[in-house]
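quick q for whoever's on today - can somebody do inverse folding on this one?? i tried earlier but teh output was garbage lol. tokens:
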């Protein structure tokens, strides 16, 4: 299951060449991932209140073409792997006006408790695990 997050590029996110600075795509992926989880009826805030922390273990971005100020990006987000203690998301950002793929990427996350120890959400938070599992 993929969920589409729509986002307009802000002027301050561009560089001297007038294109989105490469580091901002990682931020867009994070926004899209949070949106993905919200669309499942959950939230990062609720995760943290319940004692679940999801640090980034790795992130990858492959740039295809540039995006400019005021472009609208459609960022497709999919959960592609889910284990008890890890998850992986994949992203594709498309320029809504041109249909061009701007970039693709992925991020891997661990599940930790408040003391930063590995947390098996399948065992401890079956409701969250099952909600995420339905999207695979």
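ok took a stab at it. sequence:
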């Amino acid at each position: 299951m993929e969920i589409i997050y729509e986002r307009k590029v802000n002027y301050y996110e561009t560089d001297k060449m007038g294109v989105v600075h490469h580091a901002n795509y990682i931020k867009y992926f994070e926004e899209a991932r949070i949106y993905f989880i919200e669309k499942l009826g959950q939230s990062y805030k609720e995760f943290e209140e319940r004692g679940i922390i999801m640090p980034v273990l790795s992130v990858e971005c492959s740039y295809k073409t540039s995006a400019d100020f005021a472009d609208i990006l459609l960022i497709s987000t999919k959960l592609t792997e889910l284990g008890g203690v890890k998850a992986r998301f994949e992203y594709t950002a498309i320029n809504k006006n041109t249909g061009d793929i701007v970039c693709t990427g992925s991020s891997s996350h661990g599940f930790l408790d408040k003391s930063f120890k590995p947390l098996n959400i399948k065992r401890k938070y079956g409701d969250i695990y099952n909600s995420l599992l339905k999207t695979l």
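fwiw The chain has a mean pLDDT of 96. also The chain has one domain: 2-133. so keep that in mind when u check it
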